[in-house]
Give the backbone structure.
Amino acid sequence: MDTDGSESDQRGVLVHVSASEAGDADQQLSMTKTVVIAMSCVVAYLGVMAALTVYCLIHMVRARRLRKHDQLHHTDEREYHHRHLSPLGVTTTQPKN
């Protein structure tokens, strides 16, 4: 009953009050942090991949040069040993006195 003694029809009304400005700002800041972290990881990953690629390329070029250098010197040594040493390791030419 109302204060005047009559009955009233009361209906419930739900009012939703939100602090959307503060919530949106926090959510925007959180999203910005997430994007910055993700992009930093991507840049770091690409940097590591580039560094490893350069390192492996340099290593491969050095190994190739060393292999060619060794092949040339081993060929010279084999020819020397073939010409001057017998299979038993004894020189085939007599030294001059």
Q: What stands out?
A: The mean pLDDT is 76. The helical segments are 20-84.
